[in-house]
Amino acid sequence: MKKDPRVVFGRCVVYGLAWTVLAFLVLPMIIVVPVSFTDQYYLSLPKEGLSLQHYAAFFEKEIWLAATLDSVIVATCSTVAALVLGTLCAIGCWRLASNAAESVRTFMLTPIIVPTIVQALAMYRFWIDLGIMDTYFGLILAHTLIAIPYVVITVSASLANFDVRLEQASRNLGASTSQTIRWVILPSIVPGMLSGALFAFTISFDEIVVALFITSRNVYTLPKRIWDGIQDHLDPTIASIATMLIVITLALLLTELWARQRRRARLTERIEGGEA
Amino acid sequence: MHASLRRVYWWLIAPAVLLMLVFYIYPLIQVLWISVTDPVPGLGNYSELIDRALIHRIWMTTIRVCVITTVITVVCGYIVAYTMAQVGERQRTWMMFCVLLTFWLSVLIRAFAWVMLLRTQGLINTGLQELGLIDQPLRLVRNEFGVIVGMVHFMLPLAVLPIYSNMTGIQDRLVSAARGLGASPWVAFKDVYLPLSKPGLIAATILVFVFSLGFFITPALLGGGKVVMISEYIQVSFEETLRWGQATMLASTLLFSVFLSLALVARFVDLKKVFGAR
């Protein structure tokens, strides 16, 4: 069939626009990379040569390393907590499959919808009453609450593809509830749990609004340091941190894409093998 | 299922629900409660919504910025998603890659990149000055332009993903059929494709609008105190004046607006689908 020139022209315009939008998305992040290697003492593109001074500043200054450590501690603990609680909740709701369970699952999504500033204010007030202001426990608790909905969503999604009959078979063969969960359900929802964990970790590692409200000196996470750095004098160290975070995000994303492609390849192999 | 077995499953749900009720819902209710009891019981705090010009202005700014952001984001997101649904596998993977990279990268880092580019001595201004295109630096940040640029950048992946996932379910044969029956490319798109992609479009609009309303980080950093939206004002009125009554009143109003927007659209679309819970 001969292509209508109007269609071809329209298509070129739309595709061009789409790539322009994508350039708008990606370019600002890419430009950070050369800036991080600047030889100047302020944020700019390298003038006379490349320099690693802003990376050195990150690894030599106590405040940046301490902040990174705080962030890793808080993110790890809240990821584990959110993963356990969220997964159990998703399994329970899925297996009960009643209207009440469905409402519970909807209810668990509340933290996604409530504006961050509102929850920060609410937690501030209550955390004072509890006496857990500016403690690791307080921030971990807050981040766990914020992250649970994402685990519930991702685990529920992978449970939706899980065949209920497998679970019944396991029970008929005499397995207890905990054995069934451990040996039958958990292995098949591992991908959902992994992406839930990744969500939880990223959210905690990046969270700033609640941290600004409920922590002060004792717990000082990386986002808080970055926030200070942007507001004070645009510390160029942030450009080096940004570059490192971009590289980490890129690596994780590539791994994920690679794993997905391998899964798909294995699936096609199996299907074709079955047909042959 | 046996009653005893059902009880076991309720026990699995209980810890998460209890945690949420005690440490999340109760504090929220406390905020609502303070807003009508501090400093004196009654709706005194809420009368400021009507009386005070400053609060009017902040709400107007918030709604204006949110509406503009939503429109730009959804239109751009639709173009990207549509192209992704049309092109070949290779190109699609690359496009998806760009979207996901942005989606996963730290919000703070993205706002930082924009401040670095847009400020008075930023890369764009110095670049243009060195090229001799401008004498005076352009004002790109600390105004609504800067805030909207940053917000669109943050929201775009949130628009592309639902629109695209809806589009993958649309059969291209329908558009071909319309073309075969004599519709022009534009008419075939407008009367066949667009209506079919409406669920994704609506989902994206809701997500972007609701998240914009309560957005704090990007407006605070790129607005530089000049463009104050409701979230930032809540923080300021709480930190600087310590007026709990006012801060909680504004927070409650923000919470209500979010739930009101969701309730309005819940009549047209399945919200659980929008948030990926189903």
UniProtKB/TrEMBL annotation, chain A:
Keywords of this entry: Cell inner membrane, Cell membrane, Membrane, Transmembrane, Transmembrane helix, Transport
GO terms for biological process, alphabetical: transmembrane transport
Key word Membrane present: yes
Membrane topology, as annotated: Multi-pass membrane protein
Pfam family, one: BPD_transp_1
Domain annotation ABC transmembrane type-1: ranges: 68-256
Entry's transmembrane regions: 12-37, 72-94, 106-128, 140-162, 183-203, 238-259
Coiled-coil region list: none
InterPro entries on file: MetI-like, MetI-like_sf
Record-given protein name: Putative spermidine/putrescine transport system permease protein
Source species of the chain: Thalassobaculum litoreum DSM 18839
Automatic annotation (TrEMBL), chain B:
GO biological process: transmembrane transport
Domain ABC transmembrane type-1: 59-266
Coiled coil start-end: none
InterPro entries listed in its UniProt record: MetI-like, MetI-like_sf
Keywords: Cell membrane, Membrane, Transmembrane, Transmembrane helix, Transport
GO cellular component, one term: plasma membrane
Transmembrane regions listed in the UniProt entry: 12-34, 54-82, 94-117, 145-164, 200-224, 244-269
Membrane topology listed for this record: Multi-pass membrane protein
SUPFAM superfamilies: MetI-like
Compartments (UniProt record): Cell membrane
CDD domains: TM_PBP2
Family recorded in the similarity comment: Belongs to the binding-protein-dependent transport system permease family. CysTW subfamily.
Name this polypeptide is given: Putative spermidine/putrescine transport system permease protein
Protein species of origin: Thalassobaculum litoreum DSM 18839
Lineage: Bacteria, Pseudomonadati, Pseudomonadota, Alphaproteobacteria, Rhodospirillales
